[in-house]
């Protein structure tokens, strides 16, 4: 080792000495001995690497206390953190889909803090059913006879098939062999559930006779899958649930539907095209309908199955139900969310998903105008800030080709350089409450549809 390197290494203080540094002892009180020692070791290691690779001490080695404090702050940051969702996608899967209503937040906090009547009925102390409270509400809201709740809709579809059609044939239209993001594909789920998929019709057209001709003595179900994340347009034909139920009656075959989003409310009230609703399908005679809790319903992640009493009873008794069941926090949040639907007068006010979908473009535009002057001044001269109309999306595969008029704040680099745009987007992602927008057409777009904490955003963006 050269004299120079030796000299550099000698400048790295001993960990024991650092631990007694009056600037570092407060860190021990705050983060604990173990974490501070680990952080010091990590920093010493980084300094050694820097000497070996670049023959210099890192700049931070000027002040070890600050460097270690920074390291501890970074490492102590939760991996799951609050962000501002200004992507324009209301139900953003990567950002956690539906925001919970205050009533749901309170219900979850209680379920976390205190013992709750999860499987315990207070009248008579017999062991109640885990889904019972929620099932009552689901029946009231959808007109179904009974209900079952599991971890998510993927689990609901798997369980529904495993409990009603294992070892048997399930007839599905070729136009409905859907892939949802994250490796959920109907043919694969079918195999996992132990069912044999019988494809009928073509990609664009399937008729009643296609289902009829596929019936064998081993047919267990006719299944419909809502093509929630794409649309087939042009020369198309499909068989509605009502038609299929009429067709199936002659054979005594139940019809089941994977509805995906399953809004309990007519989406036309939000200025969106109608999305099929579970209550309609139940009224049409479908035996089982499954849908998500955290898509348009606006509740927690959950899979909900509603339908005929005896089929739900089979599902409840299936061993997979135990493996896929929802936890107490989910059930508490779902119950509180469903209760909001009993009071339609205040639903839009109290349920964030609907409140955000329902926001009027003019109000969003006004909000953008309010924020503009401070931001334009702060980001000048490097960026031009403007208010522009844009289109938001419901997201999570719900109503995939439909969009809602909205307004965005756009940041365009005066230099016209894409690298500056990327740097800005990265800087906003690095804020204490990260701000997530999207880059399009040479600018960074912050769609304000989902912005409710206006002061909080301004505080971040003016840092
Ligand atoms: C979203 C969706 C699923 C998966 O639901 P998760 O709740 O995300 O598991 C399944 N089927 C359809 C048609 C969907 O739209």
Automatic annotation (TrEMBL):
GO terms for molecular function: L-seryl-tRNA(Sec) selenium transferase activity. One of its GO terms (cellular component) is cytoplasm. It is an enzyme of class 2 (transferase). Residues 9-48 form the L-seryl-tRNA selenium transferase N-terminal domain. Pathway: Aminoacyl-tRNA biosynthesis; selenocysteinyl-tRNA(Sec) biosynthesis; selenocysteinyl-tRNA(Sec) from L-seryl-tRNA(Sec) (bacterial route): step 1/1. The keyword Protein biosynthesis applies. Its EC number is 2.9.1.1. Homodecamer; pentamer of dimers. Binds only one seryl-tRNA(Sec) per dimer. This is L-seryl-tRNA(Sec) selenium transferase. It comes from Mangrovibacter phragmitis.
């Amino acid at each position: 080792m050269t004299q120079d390197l030796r000299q550099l290494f000698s400048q790295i203080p001993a960990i024991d000495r650092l631990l007694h540094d009056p600037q570092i002892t407060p860190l021990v009180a705050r983060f604990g001995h173990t974490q501070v020692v680990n952080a010091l070791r990590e920093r010493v290691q980084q300094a050694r690497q820097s000497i070996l690779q670049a023959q210099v001490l890192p700049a931070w080695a000027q002040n070890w206390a600050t460097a270690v404090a920074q390291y501890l702050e970074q490492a102590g940051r939760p991996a799951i953190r609050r962000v501002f969702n200004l992507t324009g996608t209301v139900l953003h899967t990567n950002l956690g889909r539906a925001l919970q209503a205050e009533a749901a937040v309170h219900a979850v906090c209680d379920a976390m803090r205190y013992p709750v009547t999860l499987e315990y009925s207070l009248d008579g102390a017999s062991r109640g059913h885990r889904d019972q409270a929620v099932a009552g509400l689901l029946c009231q809201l959808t007109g179904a006879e009974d209900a079952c709740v599991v971890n998510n809709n993927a689990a609901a579809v798997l369980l529904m098939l495993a409990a009603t059609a294992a070892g048997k044939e399930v007839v599905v239209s070729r136009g409905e062999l859907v892939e949802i993001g994250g490796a959920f594909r109907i043919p694969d789920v079918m195999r996992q559930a132990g069912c044999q998929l019988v494809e009928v019709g073509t990609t664009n057209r399937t008729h009643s006779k296609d289902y009829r001709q596929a019936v064998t003595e081993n047919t267990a179900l006719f299944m419909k899958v809502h093509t929630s994340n794409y649309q087939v347009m042009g020369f198309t034909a499909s068989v509605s649930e009502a038609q299929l139920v009429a067709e199936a009656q002659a054979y005594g075959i139940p019809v089941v539907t994977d509805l995906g989003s399953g809004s309990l409310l007519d989406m036309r009230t939000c200025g969106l095209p109608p999305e099929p609703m579970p209550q309609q399908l139940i009224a049409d005679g479908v035996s089982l309908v499954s849908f998500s809790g955290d898509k348009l319903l606006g509740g927690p992640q959950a899979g909900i199955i509603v339908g005929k009493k005896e089929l739900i009873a089979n599902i409840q008794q299936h061993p997979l139900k135990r493996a896929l069941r929802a936890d107490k926090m989910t059930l508490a949040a779902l119950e509180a969310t469903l209760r909001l639907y009993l009071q339609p007068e205040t639903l839009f006010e109290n349920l964030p998903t609907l409140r955000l979908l329902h926001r009027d473009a003019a109000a969003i535009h006004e909000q953008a105008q309010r924020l503009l002057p401070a931001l334009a001044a702060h980001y000048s001269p490097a960026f031009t800030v403007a208010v522009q109309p844009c289109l938001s999306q419901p997201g999570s595969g719900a109503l995939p080709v439909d969009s809602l008029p909205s307004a965005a704040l756009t940041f365009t680099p005066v230099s016209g350089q894409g690298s500056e745009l990327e740097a800005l987007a990265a800087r906003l992602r690095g804020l204490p409450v990260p701000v997530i927008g999207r880059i399009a057409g040479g600018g960074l777009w912050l769609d304000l549809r989902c912005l409710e904490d206006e002061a909080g955003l301004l505080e971040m963006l003016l840092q």
